[in-house]
Design a protein that fits this description.
The protein has helices at 22-28, 48-61, 76-88, 106-113, 123-143, 158-177, 193-205, 221-239, 266-279, 288-301, 318-321, 329-336, and strands at residues 18-20, 31-36, 66-72, 91-97, 117-121, 148-150, 184-189, 211-216, 251-252, 309-314. The protein is an alpha/beta fold.
């Protein structure tokens, strides 16, 4: 099965490293590698950049002058889009779910620095009226003589997901050159595009292994099974692939969302802190922290066998971490109260 890749921009620093976590692997009894897609750039970092290389290339082909996209107030995707637009000389308008804070921090501060425009909407209006909001914005820019191009949440559509078709090829190529046989690839799932791209890459390569797993950070497993299959079907329409979408196994490790999207919980925070102390790797409470905590629990439950090799896709998110300092208040107090050993 072949795929004619569309042209892309060169925004990401690729290939990103595939790093072995030796101390953590010894503790868990599996061989654990991190695909460091948090290193696709500095501020223009994370998994969204791979998707934007294709989405923004299409926008430029269509002579767009304004890019519109959407997400939460601390959206990694919106931050990456705003900075990429600044690099390409495009205007950026962000539709954000939630109220504007008193002062910007984390990703939102970077959006501001990049010159993005903002429209904030309460959660209910954002969820139920987003298509109408997008249409209204596109029409408003058209009246001003500007062509606006809309990128969906997370750039999770056929064109954006191509970024992770190529990422799958990159991971397999790195593993083969290093003599590594990867049994499983695990990634966070928040809008479906990264998981869909990885699955498409595996299908195109006609490989039995590695198994691809997503850990949902919002909604539930049926939601993402449906969404991933929708993206694969859109790929069929756009790129003439022949994925039998209803037969594609979409593996979702459900049960680690906690109280809700972008809402951390103590066990997740413990996993973030332990990884930082053991391997010097930093995760965020919104995406990678939930996904990594889920992976640890699934290893402990025996889903992954001892001695197997797992690749965890580190999709970035460190700037979102900086906006959730309150979640680490107890650990700070504990640290202040710790006595130095004589």
């Amino acid at each position: 099965m072949l795929m004619n890749f569309p042209k892309r921009l060169r925004l990401a620093q690729l290939p990103t490293p595939l790093e072995y976590a030796e101390r953590l692997s010894n503790a868990l009894g599996v061989r654990l590698y991190f695909k460091r897609d948090d290193l696709t750039g500095s501020v223009l970092s994370g998994n969204k950049v791979r998707k934007l290389e294709f989405a923004l290339a299409e926008a430029l082909r269509e002579k767009a002058q304004v890019i519109i996209t959407a997400g939460g107030v601390q959206s990694n995707h919106c931050r990456a889009t705003a900075l990429a637009c600044a690099r390409m000389g495009l205007e950026c308008h962000l539709i954000l779910r939630g109220a504007p804070p008193r002062l910007p921090n984390g990703n939102l501060l970077l959006d501001l620095l990049a010159g993005a425009r903002f429209s904030f909407f309460p959660r209910e209006i954002y969820s139920t009226r987003r298509p109408e909001i997008v249409t209204d914005l596109v029409e408003r820019y058209a009246r001003d003589g500007k062509h606006a191009y809309f990128i969906p949440v997370g750039a999770s559509n056929a064109i954006g997901s191509v970024g992770y078709v190529q990422a799958f090829q990159e991971i397999i190529g790195q593993a083969e050159r290093a003599g590594i046989k990867i049994d499983h690839i695990v990634t966070a799932v928040g809008s479906g595009g990264t998981l869909a791209g990885l699955l498409a890459g595996k299908l195109l390569a006609k490989r039995r292994r590695p198994e691809i797993w997503g850990v949902n950070v919002c909604d539930d497993a049926p939601t993402f099974v449906q969404e991933v299959r929708r993206i694969l079907e859109e790929m069929n329409d756009r790129f003439r692939t022949r994925f039998r979408t209803e037969q594609v196994a979409v593996n979702i490790l459900d049960g680690y969302v906690g109280p809700g999207y972008a809402l951390a919980y103590p066990e997740e925070i413990d996993s973030i802190i332990n990884l930082a102390r053991l391997e010097g790797l930093v995760l965020d409470p919104v995406y990678t922290g939930k996904a990594f905590h889920g992976l640890l629990r699934e290893i402990a439950a025996g889903r992954f066998r001892k001695g197997e090799t797992i690749c965890f896709v580190h999709t970035g998110g460190v700037f979102g971490l900086m906006a959730q300092v309150e979640e680490f208040r107890d650990y700070w107090r504990e640290n202040l109260g710790r006595k130095a050993k004589r």
